[in-house]
Amino acid sequence: MLSDKMVKSINHQINREHYSAYLYLSMASYAAAEGLNGFANWFAVQMKEEMFHAEKMYNYVNQQGSRVLLEAIEQPPTEFSSMLDLFEKTLEHEKGVTAMINNLVKLAREKDDYATESFLQWYVTEQVEEEANPAEIIQKLKFIGKDGRGLLMMDKDLAARVFTVPTATGQ
Ligand code: OFO
Predict the structure, then answer these.
(1) Ligand 1 close to Cβ of residue 18 (< 6 A)
(2) CA-CA distances (angstroms) from residue 23 to 5, 61, 68, 74, 169?
(3) Beta carbon of 19 within 6 Å of any ligand 1 atom
């Protein structure tokens, strides 16, 4: 059984994961409008990952016999200036999400809620990747600079990204 505070906090995190999905869909739309469909694909896959993050928490709250209450999702930014801008904003956003996940772990520890602490470990590990991926792309984009051919080659690479449901930990 989850404490009221834990249910409220996970419910709020479900909202933040949905917001992340919305943010990345907005970024996908910007990249598509710029004619960079590989970049758009990367963000569309990222959007699906975020929906998975939210669904995994939704399932956990239900399994624990508590109730998910969905909150309003605010409008994400719609104006961006470049592919580099998208990934810098992604990295900044993910650092914020990591801090939120860490706060949830802290709360689980305070409440001696071992099940939730164990459940959240998946997200702790996932956040390492969530920060590493944009950081790596930022490095490449800085290297490419204003070279249009480099950008197109990268667009081709990013077109190959596919969403796969994590099997070992997926629920
Ligand atoms: Fe859900 O990890 Fe990104 O936001």
Answers:
(1) no
(2) 27, 24, 22, 10, 25
(3) no
